[in-house]
Amino acid sequence: MNSNLAQLPKEPADLFTRPLTRFLRIEAMAGAILLVCTIVALVLSNTAWSTQFLGFWETKAGFSVGGMEFVRSLKHWINDGLMTLFFFVVALELKRELVLGELRDPRRAAFPLAAALGGMVVPAGLFLLLVGDEPGASGWGTVMSTDTAFVIGCLAILGARLPHSLRLFLLSLAIFDDVGAILVVAIAYGGTLNWIALALVALGLAIVAGMARLGFRSIPVYFAMGGLIWLALDASGVHATLSGVILGLMTPARSWVSDSRLHAIFDRVVAYPPGARWGGNTSARQDLRRAGIAAREALSPIERLEVSLHPWVAFTIMPLFALANAGVPIGATGFVPALATSIFVAFVIGKPIGIVLFSFIAARMRLGIRPSDLPWSLLAAGSLLTGIGFTMALFIAELAFDPGLLNSAKLGILAASVVSAAMGFLALVWLTSRGSQNAG
User: Fold this and answer.
1) CA distances, 210 to each of 172, 214, 301, 362 (Å)
2) CA atoms in the 13 A half-sphere facing the CB of 199
3) Predicted local distance difference test score (pLDDT) of residue 90
4) If we measure between CA atoms, which residue out of 40, 38, 41, 73 comes closest to residue 56?
5) Which of 79, 177, 218, 405 has the fewest CB atoms within 10 Å, measured from its CB?
6) What's the rounded Cα separation, in Å, for the pair 193 and 349?
7) For residues 431 and 434, what is the distance between their CA atoms, to the nearest angstrom?
8) Per-residue pLDDT averaged across 318-323, rounded?
9) Angle of helix 376-385 relative to helix 351-364, nearest 10 degrees?
10) How far is residue 86's CA from residue 78's CA, in Å, rounded to a whole number?
């Protein structure tokens, strides 16, 4: 049989779409584009166009339904709306690893979970110790998170020089502390609770669970329900992005069609002779349609949603977030060095110390299992990268700090991210180079 017949037909558009698809699969590219957007935001916010650039993100947009009005700034729609999809994808990745991945073993999952806990508690405590009674102490949640895109981008540059266990450890850690950070946002930085809206949220989640139990499989219907839940949560006083985490964790991790059923359905289609008529209301067309559904449903909803949403999150939502939030007028008045320094120290020093310390305790007490090919030296070097707080840190800073303190907090976050990236990258390069020389 001609092997070309086993491929999809080629089209002129493939000359553009296939290179784009390959580009989107390069993990380091997401971090690179995020970095470019950050630099653009910093440059524009310190030029003659600063007022127009920063003011653009405060433009009001929205809609009204009956007597309810949803009008927010563009920055709010990005931070609270689009970022919900970011947290949804984070929750999907976490559930996939816990149900289908290498973290199915509770003790293997406990190791990065303990590290994430240390990476949240220690820097938050160090920040509070340094800030003391000064303004900005309420922003302790800012120093708890790790930017997944930048960390994975740094690891992707080093490629095969690093063991897979380090990548999995840092990815799991970043996901755990992103989920932890959004829980902190929901609890510590929410508004006055609206119990009627919360009841609507609970009702919406119950409907989603009931739909899944009854076998509804239309993803657009679930997204519509998710939108209603988001609106109710936004009106409840709890930060609306929490809906992304909850719905992500509720997404089924198992495929609907088993491998054996998939093969049986495909065998029926293959049994038709070449030239069979697929049109009309025939059994052949029904079998072909059934095969199309089976091919789609052989992948779990988590895998399908990750594949479809990840490029949009990495290459659209995250860059938009950086453009809307990373702009800091460097020469602005009212700069608070003590606050920026406290954030910097909490990220650069507190984050890696907390991760290594809690990882060691978990391994020593046999609560978690450290991978055999992940030496403590590599773990410590990799933990330096976790001081890249960026996305989540800016996200929480927008909620936690008064406008007069926000630019100081952003400068501390950006400085810590740059230094942590440089220190972690250089430490990993040095360790892997020394390891390869010793092996030689």
Assistant:
1) 30, 6, 16, 38
2) 3
3) 84
4) 73
5) 218
6) 36
7) 5
8) 90
9) 150
10) 11
Q: Give the 3-state secondary structure of 377-388.
A: HHHHHHHHHCCC
Query: Is 57 within 8 Å of 324 (Cβ atoms)?
Result: yes
Residue 437 pLDDT greater than 50, yes or no:
no
Residue 241 CA to residue 239 CA, distance in Å, equals 6
Average pLDDT score, the chain: 84
Is pLDDT larger for residue 391 or for residue 203? 203
- Stated pTM of the model: 0.80
Which residue is listed with tokens 């003590």?
338
Angle at 127 between CA 45 and CA 108, to 5 degrees: 100
**And the tokens for 37?**
């957007």
User: Over the stretch 191-210, which tens digit does the pLDDT of each residue have?
Assistant: 677 889 999 999 999 999 99
Tokens of residue 430, six digits = 């040095």
Answer whether residue 269 shows pLDDT above 90: no
pLDDT above 80 for 278: no
- Pairwise CA distance, residues 167 & 163, whole Å: 7
| Alpha carbon distance 203, 208 (integer Å) | 9
pLDDT band at 3 (very low <50, low <70, confident <90, very high): low
Indicate if the pLDDT at residue 331 is higher than 90: no
Cα dihedral 32, 36, 41, 46, rounded to 10, equals 130
| CA atoms of 9 and 229, how far apart (whole Å) | 41
Angle between helices 83-99 and 318-325 (to 10 degrees): 130
> What pLDDT is stored for residue 426 in this prediction?
93
Residue at token pair 């250089």:
426
Count the Cβ atoms, other than its own, within 10 Å of residue 119: 34
Residue 23 pLDDT more than 50?
Answer: no
**What's the rounded mean pLDDT across residues 170-186?**
84
Distance (Å, whole) CA 171 – CA 165: 10
DSSP per residue over 205-259, as a string? HHHHHHHHHHT---HHHHHHHHHHHHHHHHHHTS-TTHHHHHHHHHS--S-SS-H
Burial of 28 (0-12, 13-18, 19+ CB in 10 A): middle
Helix (H) or strand (E) holding 60: strand 60-65
C-alpha closest to that of 86 among 169, 147, 8, 131: 147
In angstroms, rounded to a whole number, what is the distance separating the alpha carbons of residues 420 and 352? 10
